[in-house]
Structure formats: structure tokens, C-alpha cells
Write a structure and sequence with these properties.
Length: 366
Amino acid sequence: MKLNSLKLHNFRNYEKIELHFNNTLNIIYGKNGVGKTNLVEAIYALSLTKSFRTNNDKYLIRNGELSTKIEGEVETDTVNNYQVILNKDGKKVKINNNISSKISDYIANINIIVLEPEEQSIFKSSPQERRKLLNIEISQLKKDYIIILNNYNKTLKQRNFYLRELYINGNASKEYLDILTNKLIEYGLKIYNYREEFINNINKYISNKYEEVFISGNLNIKYNSDYKNKSKEEIFELYKKNYNREVVMGKTLYGIHHDDITFMLDGKNISEYGSNGQQKNAIFAFKLSEIELIYTEKGEYPILILDDLFSALDKEKIKNIFKILNDHIQTFITTTELTKINRNLVKSAFLFNVTKDGIKVINGEV
């Protein structure tokens, strides 16, 4: 999978630009604060219709403007044009100028992996953030995942509302709650199965990736869920047994909306016992494993973004990462200094020198 070109209109600090890329390595360099990460953020948004830096789309729109458009030509077996248009009313996506009515139909077309230092915060964040990580990555592999997840969240909202109704009105029908509970379980089990399959597949690669880059350590991910090893009937009984408690609290106390994942390094929870360096290494190993999983399932490597990685890892670990990458993976690197990158890599790359005055494109060595 290759991104041949990118056009931005009123995106972040860019009023209007058009760039063409190398099929293998692209290095975006310049001082801090000039817009290097904005470029790779645009590539990510072209793929997943959202940023990896903010949850609010309005921050992607250039100051003083009403909308932004991200457009890219992506080559797989065929060449297709993709567009993401954001404004105050929401977002619109197009494939070859045809509007996609469902975001889920759009998202799984362009696979992308980002390695960036801030992702280490996932270990200190809430379970909700770790579920978000799962949701983003699984949605790139399974087209119907987002649809099922949206249906689950909609049913969860309805069930919580009705639990509060039952508390206020004790004579309200419990049969409707049972209908909502069955729907919730149906959607929840599908999501559980997708998440369990994803974690199992990641675990096939993650320990080897960790050892290849970071020399030693046995890493795996543990999936924690209320639905684990339970049938539909057993889950329904769980809700039934806790009916009074849920009515009093006015919310659904069990389900995949409480799922979490735990990174285990040498048998210990890395969130509790791991150093900052080990946590950083673990999330990088997770993302490198995703590259292999996407290739195995879809027959194509994803686009890879290495954002400011050279400030987070030493030269030896960077060298090890590049050893396990290959020329079939189109890679985008952001850095403040070209001298931090192996000269042979620099020679083979397209170089994009970003300054406050714009972007200078250089092919080959500077």
C-alpha cells in the first residue's frame, strides 16, 4: 500500500499544498513547531478520518477557515483517490469522488500504523483509552466492526435510560429490558470475539518483535472482559442476577464497555512494574506486530509513520527497528535533525524540509 500524493486545503497551518512521495522512505525534517507532525497527521486523517493527536476535528481546520479537505492518491492493486472533508457540521468522505454513506466502508481501505512517543501514555490512561486503541486498530481489519460497536453503544444508552425509568416507575415492563439486554449481549459477543481474535493474533508476533528491537523480554497482552469464557445464556444470567443493583445505580454494570488489556512483560503487569522505557518499548512492539498482522490478513503492508521517534529511542534501537522493516513498507519519518538518521537511508529517501515559509522537496542527499 503506497500513498502516491497528498493535497491539503486549509489543514492546520497549511493553506494549500500538494506533495508527491517516494514508495519506500520519506523524511520530513525541520525545527520544532513548523508543521512536520501536521503533515503525517494529515496522512493519518486521510486513512482513519480523525487525528492521532486530538479528539476534536475542529482543530484540524486552519484558523479562520470553515472547512478543511485532505485528498490523497493511494496505490494498492489499483489506484484510487480518497478525500476527507471536515467542517463544523461533521465530516464527509469520498472514494473516487463518490460519497461513502458509511464511514466504516471508507476506513478499512487505507491501513496505517503510527509509532510516536506519546503513545506510552496508554499505560497511565483509563481503560477507555485502551479500548479506543483496540477499536481503531480492529476497524482497519474488519469493515463491520465500527457498525457493530455503534450498535452496541446505542443499545447501551437505551438500556441505561430504561434502567433509570424502571427505578422511577416500578411498574414499567421488565420485558423490554430483557429485549435490550439480549440485543446488548448479541452485539457485545461479536465485539468480544473480534477483540479476542485480534489480541490472540498480536500475541503471535509481539514477543519476537520486542526481543528483536529491545534485545530481551517476553511480552504478551492479556485481554480482560466480563464476557470471557461465558456463553450468551451465562451472560444473560449475570445481568439477571444483578438486576436490582443496576436499577438502583441506573446503568449497565457489565459488558464489553468495561473491557481492558494488560501488557505483561516477563509475567508482570508492565503498567505497574515496568519502567518508562519498557512501557515505551512495549507499545512500539505492539505496533510493529500490527504491521505483520495487517500483511498476513490483507496481503499488503500498511503505511508506516515514525513521528519524532529519534528523540525517544537510542541509535541501537532505531537501527533494530529498521532491520525488521523492509522496502515494501512505505515509511514517513519526522525528525528535527537529519544527522540522527543513517546516511544511506537519507540518500535513498525523498526529503521534505519544512520551515515556517513552506516545504522544500529534495530527492536524494542534501
